[in-house]
Structure formats: structure tokens, C-alpha cells
Amino acid sequence: MSTFDDEGSMSASSDGSGVGYSGSDPDQKNTFDSTTGSGGETRTKSSSEGGLLSRMSNTAVVRSKLLVYIVLALAAAGFATAVYFLLTAEETDDFETQVSRK
Length: 102
Fold this sequence. Notes:
This protein is of the alpha+beta class. It is built from 1 helix and 5 strands, in the order E-E-E-E-E-H. The longest helix has 55 residues, at 47-101.
């Protein structure tokens, strides 16, 4: 359950998932989230750690997208090159066949 006090800060109780939040600004740097584990122990995690993980995840996603684009471009270039050489050889054969008949 979430409640707001007179100053506008929010406090929330755990909903059974083991995750709780307490603080006045969830976007504030270096806020701490409390987590209650199955044994009742309380752990805290800095939001700056979450930001680092988020940045690393975003970087990994960007790199994987770049890799996919590069592989796609190389595949397209390889396919186009193969088609070019195949059609060039076929056209050359057709030309030589037509010229030799005359």
C-alpha cells in the first residue's frame, strides 16, 4: 500500500513480492531500495548500481543491433555479388550463342 505524507514524500509497503520502497524522490541519484529476502534479512541496493546495470544493458543492446546490421549488410552484399556474377556469366553465354549463329 502506498501513502503520501504532508510533504509529498511517498512510502510503500511490500506487496508480498519482497520488494519495498521508501523515499521522497524515486528519480533522485543514490537513493536506496530495501529488499526483504525470504529469510527476513534486509538488503539495500543503491540506484546508481541499477543505473550502471541499465547503461551496460543498453550498451550491449546497441552493440548487438550493430552486429546484426553489419551481418545483414554483408549478407546482402554477398548475395548481390553472387547474383551479379551469375547473371554476367549467363548473359555472356547467351551473347556468344547468338553471335556464333550468324
